[in-house]
């Protein structure tokens, strides 16, 4: 490929991206693609790796894209979104609800988008002023230290099955009820320098991801069976979970995400306005 190493692709270590990634290796093999390497990790690790140039393309937190948008381009048609409940971004809290608005909230260390989405909702909608703690994703440890805990991904799903006695709110549903918009939690981005230097390889990767996503949506039942076997739970739960996710990145997803970026800037979480900049296969140029 003309690099000192193959192009490296990051993969979020959560079930919510399986509809995009599950068939990727199969598709790349069918395309007789040049070698790619993969790094699988939680969102926060991939965010850091992409920002530092240790990987070249990845599904990353939408907030991480916003922070590094001058160096990144989005691959069109790919995201992890939901128009309402998302099922895997959950706020566990001790009653009453108002207690945590001026209390302590333990935040998972594994994501940026979800943490800042919760801050936006609690501080702008409810005028809350809680103290935030960063902790590893362990529900009991978090709740021993705080009045509420935010978990995401498979950690949130497993915790939702426990008989813990806490109240639970779906943060995606909270966002939808407040704003009326969908929410995009992750986007698929490529480093601008790599996209400009290796347009053919990036074009191939983009086509492979879109085909993998097509198969993931078509064979959602397979993913549900895989999730039940590897993570737990039953087929009914997983079929509902995958049905509630969206992996396109159309007008509704873009509109909701831009509102999120606007609120994040209002709250001081972002220092600049953020535009959505795409990589384009035709002549490998940026479309805004």
Automatic annotation (TrEMBL):
Domain of life of the source: Bacteria
EC number(s) on file: 4.2.1.151
Catalytically driven reaction(s): chorismate = 3-[(1-carboxyvinyl)-oxy]benzoate + H2O
GO-annotated molecular function: hydro-lyase activity
InterPro entries: Menaquinone_biosynth, MqnA
Pfam family, any one: VitK2_biosynth
Pathway membership: Quinol/quinone metabolism; menaquinone biosynthesis
Biological process according to GO: menaquinone biosynthetic process
Keywords (A to Z) from UniProt: Lyase, Menaquinone biosynthesis
Function: Catalyzes the dehydration of chorismate into 3-[(1-carboxyvinyl)oxy]benzoate, a step in the biosynthesis of menaquinone (MK, vitamin K2).
Database matches in HAMAP family: MqnA
Family: Belongs to the MqnA/MqnD family. MqnA subfamily.
Protein name: Chorismate dehydratase
Native organism taxonomy: Bacteria, Bacillati, Bacillota, Bacilli, Bacillales
Gene name as annotated: mqnA
């Amino acid at each position: 490929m003309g690099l000192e190493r193959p192009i490296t692709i990051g993969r979020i270590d959560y079930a919510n991206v399986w509809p995009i990634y599950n068939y990727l290796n199969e598709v790349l093999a069918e395309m007789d693609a040049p070698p790619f390497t993969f790094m699988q990790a939680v969102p926060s690790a991939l965010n850091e790796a992409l920002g530092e140039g240790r990987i070249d393309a990845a599904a990353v937190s939408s907030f991480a894209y916003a922070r590094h948008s001058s160096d990144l381009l989005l691959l069109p048609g790919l995201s992890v979104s939901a128009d309402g409940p998302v099922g895997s971004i959950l706020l566990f809290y001790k009653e009453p609800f108002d207690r945590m608005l001026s209390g302590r909230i333990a935040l998972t260390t594994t994501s940026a988008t979800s943490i800042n989405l919760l801050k936006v909702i609690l501080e702008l909608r409810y005028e809350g002023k809680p103290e935030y703690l960063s902790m590893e994703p362990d529900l009991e440890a978090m709740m021993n230290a705080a009045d509420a805990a935010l978990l995401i991904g498979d950690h949130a799903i497993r915790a939702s099955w426990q008989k813990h006695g806490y109240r639970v709110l779906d943060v995606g549903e909270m966002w939808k009820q407040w704003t009326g918009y969908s929410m995009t939690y992750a986007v698929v981005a490529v480093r601008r320098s790599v996209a400009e230097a290796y347009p053919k390889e990036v074009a191939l990767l983009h086509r492979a991801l879109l085909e993998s996503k097509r198969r993931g949506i078509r064979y959602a039942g397979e993913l549900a069976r895989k999730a039940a076997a590897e993570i737990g739970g039953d087929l009914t739960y997983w079929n509902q979970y995958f049905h509630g996710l969206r992996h396109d990145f159309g007008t509704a997803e873009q509109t909701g995400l831009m509102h999120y970026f606007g609120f994040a800037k209002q709250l001081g979480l972002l220092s600049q306005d953020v535009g959505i900049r795409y990589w384009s296969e035709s002549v490998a140029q940026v479309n805004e």
